[in-house]
């Protein structure tokens, strides 16, 4: 995919971090759709997509945001960055393909590209591209969360590793589980009224949730760790193993259940 041309960002995106995040995530998504058509399958497709998207995003940040640091799922695995993210004022936290498994299972659309910006202690912008849906959700124009349509709450859970306690939680609050790939797709499903909550524990990293959480917050959804504490990013330890994203009215019953029963 060396011939992929992302074009140039619109002039306003160079002055506006929300729009730059959206533009970069969308460009990487277009590249990924092309890689998905290349005839590769399974692990070869996952690896090719991860690498192509990571390299494109790193190139775009080097070109257009040269003073900023980047924390990427792929960067974390080896290659060294230009700036030290622990001393940088601005750090882009990116997941080149979230829901890698689902990406390798066309025509599934529950996979995403995450681009978030952390600045001096807080998430300040984010974009979640869902290329197979042709949509990019971002903080520059946060999703308008529709009125809740389902009579029973729906909880998005991992399709391949749903935490056992979430089943108990669902029983307690009369909810149904909606299995889905990708942390980004699950968070965005709450904003789209496809589900009402996403509850996860047992492992995840900052890049899995940074951009989706930025978008969720901008849309007015509740976000926290499962103990109710704030989700913090660009920490020394990038493991961020649990989270809740939900409609505000569901936060109390979910937190209460977890405080009472734990996650074991
Ligand atoms: N227990 C765990 N430990 C580490 N990462 C986890 C995890 N559970 C989920 N994740 C990561 O969270 C993302 C969403 O997972 P899921 O689709 O199962 O909900 C995936 O990101 P990647 O696809 O970027 O690897 C997955 O690797
Ligand atoms: Mg991920």
Automatic annotation (TrEMBL):
Pfam families: Inositol_P. CDD domains: CysQ. Gene3D superfamilies: 3.40.190.80, Fructose-1,6-Bisphosphatase, subunit A, domain 1. One of its GO terms (molecular function) is 3'(2'),5'-bisphosphate nucleotidase activity. GO terms for biological process: 3'-phosphoadenosine 5'-phosphosulfate metabolic process; sulfate assimilation. This is 3'(2'),5-bisphosphonucleoside 3'(2')-phosphohydrolase. It catalyses: adenosine 3',5'-bisphosphate + H2O = AMP + phosphate. Transmembrane segments: none annotated. InterPro entries: CysQ/Inositol_MonoPase, Inositol_monoP_metal-BS, Inositol_monophosphatase-like. Mg(2+) binds at residues 73, 95, 98, 208. Keywords: Magnesium, Metal-binding. Its cofactor is Mg(2+). It comes from the Bacteria. It comes from Nocardioides marmorisolisilvae. The keyword Chaperone does not apply. Signal peptide: none annotated.
């Amino acid at each position: 995919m060396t011939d992929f041309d992302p074009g140039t960002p619109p002039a306003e995106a160079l002055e506006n971090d929300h729009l730059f995040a959206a533009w970069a995530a969308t460009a990487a998504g277009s590249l990924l759709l092309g890689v998905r058509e290349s005839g590769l399958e399974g692990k070869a497709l996952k690896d090719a997509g991860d690498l192509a998207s990571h390299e494109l995003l790193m190139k775009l940040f080097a070109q257009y945001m040269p003073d900023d640091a980047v924390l990427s799922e792929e960067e974390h695995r080896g290659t060294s960055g230009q700036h030290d993210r622990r001393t940088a004022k601005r750090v882009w936290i990116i997941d080149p393909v979230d829901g890698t498994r689902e990406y390798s299972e066309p025509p599934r659309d529950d996979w995403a590209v995450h681009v978030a910006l952390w600045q001096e202690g807080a998430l300040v912008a984010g974009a979640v591209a869902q290329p197979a849906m042709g949509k990019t959700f971002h903080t520059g124009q946060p999703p308008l969360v529709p009125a809740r349509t389902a009579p029973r709450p729906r909880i998005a859970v991992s399709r391949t590793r749903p935490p056992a306690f979430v089943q108990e939680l669902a029983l307690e609050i009369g909810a149904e589980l909606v299995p889905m790939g990708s942390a980004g797709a699950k968070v965005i499903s709450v904003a789209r009224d496809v589900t009402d909550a996403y509850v996860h524990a047992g492992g995840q990293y900052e890049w899995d949730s940074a951009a989706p959480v930025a978008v969720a917050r901008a849309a007015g959804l509740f976000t926290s760790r499962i103990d109710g504490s704030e989700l913090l990013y660009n920490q020394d330890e990038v493991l961020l193993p649990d989270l809740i994203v939900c409609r505000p009215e569901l936060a109390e019953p979910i937190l209460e259940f977890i405080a009472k029963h734990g996650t074991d």
